[in-house]
Amino acid sequence: MSLLLSKVNVYGEAAKDILVNGGEIVEIKSPGAISKADKVLDCTNKVLLPGLVDLHTHLRQPGREDAETILSGARAATRGGYTAVHAMANTDPVADSAGVVEQVFGLGEDTQLVSVYPVGAVTVELAGKQLAELKAMADSKAQVRIFSDDGKCVEDSVIMRRALEYVKAFDGVIAQHAQEGRLTLNAQMNESALSSTLGLTGWPNVAEEAIVARDILLCELVNSRLHICHASTRGTVELLKRAKEKKINVTAEVTPHHLLLDEEYVKGYDPVFKVNPPLRHLDDVISLRNALAEGIIDVVATDHAPHPKEDKETEWAAAAFGMLGLENALSVVSTVMVHGQNFSWRDVARVMSEKPAEIGRKPEHGQKISEGARANLCLVDPEVEFIVNAGTSVSLSRNNPYQGMKFKGKPVATIFKGNLTYQEGGN
Amino acid sequence: MKHLYSINNLSKSEAISILDTAKSMAEVGGKAVKKLPTLLGRTVVNLFFEDSTRTRISFEAAAKRLSADVITFSAKGSSVSKGENLKDTAQTLEAIGADAVVIRHWASGAAETLAQSNWINAKVINAGDGTHEHPTQALLDAFTLRESLAPNQKDLSGLKIGIVGDILHSRVARSNVLLLNLLNAQCVLIAPPTLLPIGIENWNCQYSYDLDSQLAELDAVMMLRVQQERMNAAFFPSTREYSRDFGLNSTRLSQMKPQSLVLHPGPMNRGMEITAEVADSNQSVIRSQVTNGVSVRMSVLYHLLSGDAA
Ligand SMILES: [Zn+2]
Question: Most buried pick, A69, A132, A155, A358, via CB within 10 A?
């Protein structure tokens, strides 16, 4: 079946007609030049981007299917304009073996909605003691290239060094959740004047930066690839900047929530704002925005972390860490970066699709929009203003921190392997 | 005042009004029949997620002297085991028909969460939440200070109060800093740097690492309890060193103004932050604090519950 995207602003630039067929972009012509197609989408004033790629998604399956399943997470991904997600390893059982990653990969394929690429655990059971069988996961059907103990930090310096060295054999990357454990014992929020008045144990910036600094040095030592998950502090930005100046092979992601929200939201103790790493000071938020604009931070990754109601409807200290992200990530980036500062839709394509696909070594995603490219695409209404209604989410969870907030710009259609997997107002 | 989960719930005039009412309530405590019919037929629940015999019996006595029905609910749970669910518990109390819930909880913010939730309609009184606040303790401290040091004024202007010890983890200190400010007293927090919160420079008070340098200036000193679990967590090298620098003994007491007062929220570690001699001295008002606690809590219950008579 052929699909015509008529008068679409490619990367937010000149309008074109784009014909999709057989999972590929077969023709790109001036508006009005293509007339025949089985289905036509009028895309006037819409922006076309390559399908978004998330490097950091918690799909909860296997183990916590009450919070999210691979299918419900995939649906949420299509709503957010995503055509690929990387499923984090902290499931139950942990994705630390070829068997589990193949299971997750297979369930992802079954959805036919997005590519689900499992992230493999760095260490057995995420325990930080013994390397998981990284090569077996890399060689499996899932073709794992990103390894992470996310949720936990690989704290042992020797284990981290060995992991970085070992994955060089198959062009892997270690994605580090940078959190020094002793400095963050029982931590509940950003350490600051506010944490002092709220009486919540603080999570100081240095607990992230100390690990980032060490890992950059280890990465340089063994000449491997390092990726920093959810960078959250201005000190991390400085470390990344220096590492990149020295051509050390380190990349970093920032979450939508760390780009938008600061620690002030913790006032009132609503656990929907409880997340790890925590919401930081406004100075950090601004530094992260600038770092993304300057390319010091490479990508936006959601850290989509679904939790059932009972894990969030509690006193702050008892609540789970994490917030939803897939469905609203693009709207946050559009609002904060495109409408908020000088950030083009080409930049959005870079940080939400091209770079993530490159880091994950998934060349079938993040391709330039051109004839012959895979038809993994995201259609955006750049100007529409709307108020977030968490109740309409297709995720199984409702821990959406953006409830009631006003955003400008959102995905209106998603195309995966040439098929419409989401169309606003459609089904 | 709809709830009392923080001193920030109070205006200056409301705080003064609570102290004034507490004074009338104190007169009830002096009578042979220590009972008023004010809250007859109202139900006050003491909801304790953390053990505190002193605070619990003080609230129980306060509610009973106002003729309220008192139910005490000891809920299990800790930061380690989630245990009793706050929402379920609240809904149970709502079904029972609680008019006020006095909540003591190990988690900072639990009282505010309960007050702001739609789980329960009762008035919420914070009897200590984690390391956040303990507003009735601050009110009883202010009442004690006013009775002894400023009986002819409404607020505490002109007084300088030192708070000594583990400020970092102290809900008593947080509530006291807010209330002393509200009542125009000066306040100085005294502790080793490890036990002062981040951002203390921007709190509305002074701070010092040196108790001895402050003594001559103070009208009263509040000694905070040093919790056992801090003693092995590198906040200070040894209990002996702590005690040497921050313990209140007779020598230090003699450097204070003759009419100055010694307060302690209890329970005390005698010999650690305070010597037995000081605790039992004429300047110690530690036992008055306990008595005043009942009057102040009667006053708080009265102000919260009598406005909307059943
Ligand atoms: Zn993480």
Answer: A132
Domain ranges of chain B: 7-133+292-305, 135-289
Give the integer Cα–Cα distance in Å for B43 and B125.
13
Q: Please list the alpha-helical segments (H only) found in chain B.
A: 12-29, 53-65, 86-96, 110-116, 135-149, 171-182, 239-246, 250-254, 276-279, 286-305
Please state, in angstroms and rounded to a whole number, the distance separating the CA atoms of residues B158 and B125. 30
Which residues does chain A have within 8 Å of residue B129's beta carbon, measured at their own beta carbons?
199
> Closest partner residue to A269 among B87, B109, B197, by Cβ?
B109
User: Is it the case that residue B268 has pLDDT exceeding 70?
Assistant: yes
Tell me: the pLDDT tens digits for B7-34?
A: 999 999 999 999 999 999 998 877 777 7
Please give the CATH number for the structural domain made up of B7-133+292-305.
3.40.50.1370
Band the pLDDT of A427: cuts 50, 70, 90: very low
Cα gap A8→A412, rounded to integer Å: 12
Say what the pLDDT of residue A35 is. Answer: 83
Whether residue A117 contacts residue A86, with contact meaning beta carbons closer than 8 Å, is answered with yes
B198–A199 C-beta distance less than 8 A: no
Sketch the domain layout of chain A as residue ranges. 49-359
* pLDDT category of residue B241 using cuts at 50, 70 and 90: very high
Rounded Cα–Cα distance for residues B80 and A106 (Å) = 37
- Distance, CA A276 to ligand 1 centroid (Å)? 7
Peptide bond into B192 cis (omega under 30): no
Q: Alpha-carbon distance B104 to B133, whole Å?
A: 10
CATH code reported for the domain at B135-289? 3.40.50.1370
pTM (global) more than 0.80: yes
User: In the prediction, which pLDDT does B277 show?
Assistant: 96
Nearest to A160, CA basis, from A232, A241, A217, A204: A217
Mean of pLDDT values over A111-129: 98
A320 alpha carbon – ligand 1 mean position (Å)? 13
CATH architecture of A49-359: Alpha-Beta Barrel (3.20)
